[in-house]
Amino acid sequence: MSDILQELLRVSEKAANIARACRQQEALFQLLIQEKKDAEKNKKFAADFKTLADVLVQEVIKQNMESKFPGLGNKIYGEESNEFTNDLGEKITVELQSTEEETAELLSRVLNGNVPASEALAKVVHEDVDLTDPTLESLEIRIPPDILGIWVDPIDSTYQYIKGSADVKANQGVFPSGLQCVTILIGVYDTQTGMPLMGVINQPFVSQNLSTLRWKGQCYWGLSYMGTNIHSLQLSISQRNDDETQTESSDTEFSRPFSAVISTSEKETIKAAVARVCGGSVFPAAGAGYKSLCVVQGLADIYIFSEDTTYKWDSCAAHAILRAMGGGIVDMKECLERSPQTGLDLPQLLYHMENKGASGVDLWANKGGLIAYRSRNRLDTFLSHLIQNLGPSETQT
Ligand code: 2IP
Ligand code: CA
Asked: How large is the average pLDDT for residues 311-322?
C-alpha cells in the first residue's frame, strides 16, 4: 500500500506549490481571504480566515487521490467546506475541473471575474509535480484500502500563512512564529480501530533564497502498520548513529534535561509546571502541525497542549509518523488522571469517532488536550515529573 503513501507525498508537494504560489503574489493573495462561517469558526480567533488556497489544496488532494484510487476521494475529510459565495451572492462549489481552462473559468466566478488571478491559480493546480522517495518505492506492504480514512489539513497555521513573516529567527532550531510554522498535513487512519497508519507533513516554507525570494520546502512521512514501522528520517538517524558509533544509553535517556514545545495560548498553570520540568528549554511556537514536527525532528522531546482547540486533522499525520518512530500522541487529560497501575497501554488519540454531544468542528476536537512524544521512556519520566509539579486540581481537570 506504499503506492498510496507515494501518491500522498506527490499531492502534498502539489499542495505546497499552490501555497507558495499564492503567497508569492501579494495582490492575488489579498483576494483569496474570506471570513469563516460561524459553525466552522475556530474558537480561538475572533476572525478566522478561510482562504481559497486552503479549499483548493483540499480539493486537489481529494481529486488526485480519487483518480488514482477510485473510492478513496470520498473518504478524505478535512476542516474546509468547498462552498464559496462571491460578491454577487452566487454560491459556487470549488472543484477541480478536467482542464486548466475550465478550472480557471470556475475560479474566476469565485474571484469576481479576476481573470489573471484565476488563470495563475488554475495553472499551478493543473501542473504536474514529481516527488518520490526511493525508500518508499522499494517498500512492499498491503493495507486493505477499504479500511482507510484520511484527515487533511490543507494549511495548518492559517494565521501565520496570512501574516507571512519571512524573517523570524529560530530559537535552538524552533521557530516561534513565521512562515516556517505553516504545514500541510495528511494523515491516514484505520476506520475500524481509529489508529493512525500513514502520515505526510509538508512544510512549504523552510528557507528562502534572498536573491530570487523563492521558498524551498521539505516533506516528512511515516508508516506504521502491523509491525512495519518506517519513516523518512530513518536514514539520517541511522547515519548519525553510525557516525557517533553509539546510540543513547538508557542512563542518559533518563537523566538528560527535558525540552518541550507549547502553544502561545497555553494556560499559565501548565506553562509554569512545564517550565519547572524543562528549565529553560520550553519553546512557544505557532501551529499544531509545526509543533508536532518539532518533536518528529528531535528539536523537542514533548509537545504538550491542555486545551481542546486542536482537531483530528491537526494531529493525525504527525501521529502516524511518531508511531513509526516508536512514539505517539496521547490524550493529556487521560494521561494525568490514570494511575500508574492501570497498565502499560497509553491513551493514544483515535481518529474514527465523533465526540458525543458536540457539534460543528468540536465533533472532531482532541478534547482532552494532547502530548506528542518520540520516546516512551522519556514520556513516562516527563509525566511523573509533570504530575509532581502540578497542583492536585490540575491533574483532575
Ligand atoms: C490551528 C493552528 C493553530 C493552533 C490550533 C490549530 O489550525 O495550528 O496555530 O493553535 O490549535 O487548530 P496554536 O498555534 O496555539 O497551537 P488552523 O490554522 O488550521 O486553524
Ligand atoms: Ca489546523
From this structure: 98
